[in-house]
């Protein structure tokens, strides 16, 4: 595990490459890449787990009802 | 338009991931929900184009992504709004559902060029393969890989820089939230 390095978010290898004109794609070391990935998924999962607002259930229920009425 | 229960359930089941993608893409919950609603309506009116057995989520993400881009282009035409100032407004306030723990990360994410942000979200968060993400964005697989790499690199750089800064993102975010309320 890398818990001893936990206070730093990420280590960047080549900071000089930060400009807009990049000759080659920059590379991150594996530890940084994993940290970025973990944070991204944690943030995203938090959003995915939010309850679905009623407006979407209502919208789909309404559309389903309309479909049934116009069916012959 | 008929909406069969199976399709309704499938669409409803896709809403959480569509919302997460839309919120992360736009940084604004209200706008994201409008995007998701437009996506559902667009999907239903084009449902005959959907091939059963293929990935419904990927198809819905494609629609949402295209709607976001045309909306984004329209907004940029209406208001001259270069990337920098646009990114500055992309703050999801905690009471809208974001946890404060993720503020630094969200702020950094909002500063990415939008093509890099969407590639990273599709591959790194939504769980699509590089091939699926390329199909959703209408570009080459290599382009997606490159964008994801650059996105990770930039995020790492920004987060690293900000943790070493005395005027860190926490105090700046708090100040921004205070002045905007």
Description:
The complex is a heterodimer of chains A (72) and B (181). Chain A has two helices and no strands. Helices cover 50% and strands 0% of the residues of chain A. The radius of gyration of chain A is 23 Å and the shape is elongated. Chain A is mainly α and 72 residues long. By secondary structure, chain B is mainly alpha-helical. Chain B folds into two domains: 1-81, Rna Polymerase Sigma Factor, Chain: A; 100-181, Winged helix-like DNA-binding domain superfamily/Winged helix DNA-binding domain (Arc Repressor Mutant, subunit A), CATH 1.10.10. In chain B, 73% of the residues lie in helices and 0% in strands. The longest helix of chain B is centred in the middle third of the chain and has 23 residues, at 56-78. The A-B interface holds A 8-12, 15, 17-18, 22, 25-28, 32-33, 35-37, 39-44, 46-50, 52-53, 55-57, 59-61, 63-64, 66-68, 70-71 and B 1-5, 8, 11-12, 15-17, 19-20, 23-24, 33, 36-37, 40-41, 44, 97-99, 102, 105-106, 109, 120-121, 124-126, 146, 149-150, 152-157, 159-160, 163.
Give a short summary of the structure:
The complex is a heterodimer of chains A (72) and B (181). Chain A has helices at residues 30-48, 54-70.
What portion of residues of chain B belong to β-strands? under 5%
Q: Total strand count of chain B, please?
A: 0
Annotated CATH homologous superfamily of the largest domain in chain B: Winged helix-like DNA-binding domain superfamily/Winged helix DNA-binding domain
| CATH domain class of the largest domain in chain B | Mainly Alpha
Which structural class fits the helix and strand makeup of chain B? mainly alpha
Rg for CA atoms of chain A: 23 Å
N to C succession of SSEs of chain A: HH
Rounded mean pLDDT score of chain B: 81
Distance between the termini of chain B: 43 Å
Mean pLDDT of chain A: 71
CATH architecture of the largest domain in chain B: Orthogonal Bundle
Whole-number tally of structural domains of chain A: 1
The residue fraction in helices of chain B comes out at over 70%
Radius of gyration of chain B: 17 Å
- Strands of chain A, total number: 0
Characterize the biggest β-sheet of chain A.
Answer: none
Largest sheet of chain B: none
Residue windows where pLDDT falls under 50 for at least 5 positions of chain A: 1-10, 12-22
The shape of chain A, in one word, is: elongated
How is the CATH topology of the largest domain in chain B named?
Arc Repressor Mutant, subunit A
Keywords (chain B): DNA-binding, Sigma factor, Transcription, Transcription regulation
Protein name (chain B): RNA polymerase sigma factor
Domain RNA polymerase sigma factor 70 region 4 type (chain B): 103-152
Domain RNA polymerase sigma-70 region (chain B): 16-77
């Amino acid at each position: 595990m890398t818990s001893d390095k936990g206070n730093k978010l990420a280590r960047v290898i080549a900071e000089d490459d930060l400009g807009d004109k990049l000759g080659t794609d920059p590379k991150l070391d594996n530890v940084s890449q994993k940290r970025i990935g973990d944070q991204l998924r944690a943030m995203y999962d938090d959003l995915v787990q939010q309850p679905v607002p009623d407006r979407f259930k209502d919208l789909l229920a309404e559309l389903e009802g309309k479909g049934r009425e116009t069916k012959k | 338009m008929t909406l069969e229960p199976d399709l309704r359930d499938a669409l409803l089941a896709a809403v959480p991931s569509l919302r997460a993608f839309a919120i992360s893409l736009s940084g604004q919950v209200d706008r994201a929900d409008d995007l998701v609603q437009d996506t559902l309506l667009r999907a239903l009116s084009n449902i005959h184009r959907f091939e059963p057995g293929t990935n419904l989520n990927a198809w819905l993400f494609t629609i949402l992504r295209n709607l976001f881009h045309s909306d984004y282009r329209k907004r940029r035409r209406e208001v001259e709004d270069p990337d920098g100032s646009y990114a500055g407004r992309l703050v999801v306030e905690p009471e809208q559902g974001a946890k404060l723990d993720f503020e630094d990360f969200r702020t950094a994410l909002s500063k990415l060029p939008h093509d890099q942000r969407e590639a990273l979200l599709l591959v790194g968060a939504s769980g699509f393969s590089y091939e699926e993400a390329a199909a959703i964005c209408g570009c080459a697989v290599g382009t997606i890989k490159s964008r994801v790499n650059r996105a990770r690199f930039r995020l790492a750089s920004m987060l690293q820089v900000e943790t070493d800064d005395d005027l860190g993102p926490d105090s700046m975010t708090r100040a921004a939230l205070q002045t905007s309320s």
